[in-house]
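Render this sequence as a predicted structure.
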Amino acid sequence: MKNKNDAKILALKTKIEEKKKLLKVKIKLAKTNCVIALDGINYNLNVTDSQTLLYLMARLTILKETCAKFSHLKDNTLRFSGYSIDNWLYDISNKLDSLSNKEETSNLHVIEEKLTKLLSDDAKIESEIDNIDALLK
């Protein structure tokens, strides 16, 4: 027999699944090679932490704004490691989104595990039966 909290727990688990689906973002192709040389340091966006990515975004944004002030010049576009600032900002933004999504997905997984532990044995059995039934369809 299910206990009175099982319905609430199952509703919360459904809410978690909905949030997970929203977090699944299509992978966007990078516009750069993801390795930028700035001030003599090479930063690989694929392995850089969020704080460094934010720093790079801030630095590049300031450089972009500065270049915009010189729009009267024939070529006022700075390039780093062969790519424009806009391409770098696009890739850094995507990496930050990806890191944020991974962290949120991890947090949701932890919450889901806690909720599963709180389910009554009957509810756990029913859930497993439903999962098996879904696999057989």
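Summary. The radius of gyration is 23 Å. Helices lie at 6-23, 50-68, 85-118, 121-136.
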